[in-house]
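Box 3.1 A note on notation
Throughout this textbook, protein chains are presented in two layers. The first layer is the amino acid sequence; the second is a token string describing backbone geometry. Keep the layers aligned when reading.
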Amino acid sequence: MPPGIRPIHHPAADGAARGSTVGGAAVPETPVSGPASEPGDIALDLLRRLLVADGIEEFLTDAARLVVGVVATADACGVTLRLTPDAPTRAGDSDEFARRVDAIQHDLGEGPVPTCLRDAMPVELTDIEADPRWPRFSRWARAEGLGGVLSTPLVIGSRPLGAISLYARVPHAFTAADRHRMHWLADPLAVAIAVAVRLAERAERNRNLEIALTSRATVDQALGILMDRYRVNAQEAFQLLRRRSQHTNVKLRDVAAALVAAVSQTRPRAGRPDP
């Protein structure tokens, strides 16, 4: 095992769920001290983490750590988000080990995760020493202490969103139960990621609208300055501003902001005149 990589403790199997009763019927309760272990509990836990996460990358990281707690045979987990083949890949990793293995695949463009993203099908690397499919990835990942990988696609309807990947330091680590668990983990995780993407897109639109409104106000101020300075109308002032933008190869809103700032600095301050 390379220096600096330590086995990860898995709290997934810490005790059974405690129960309560409603109308005489037993109702299972998610353990307070450990992660959720049933599909419904997982979905609720993911939504809670989504609500408190500061951005989509932080949520992906939280989701990866949750999965490691649920699948006891996994030493680490990576959650990869890629909405289209040409879109940049975003990832959340449970720890440094997962981050390094994900980075190798991202840099080389080969491995279980890129294959899972491309084909939208589950991909398993049972034994890194014996599998010939990704020779460059295997060479580098062996140096990190990787033994096996289990990657599962994240899909909403027919739309692929990314992949969730388990990493083990020993070969033949994952069982049929792990594969089944990953299958039902993928659905609530895909839904939560889709919600996270929608929230991020809405926040980005709001930021762009705010920038646009601020830019419009600044441009209007700059036009007023040019109209007053050169005794021209609004259309002529805009042409002056646009020509300056084209001549300097600077965005029009930045030219307007510079003009407003320059005038603000030279304008005399209100107050009592000097004696």
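The chain has a mean pLDDT of 80. Residues 34-203 form a domain with the Beta-Lactamase fold (CATH 3.30.450.40).
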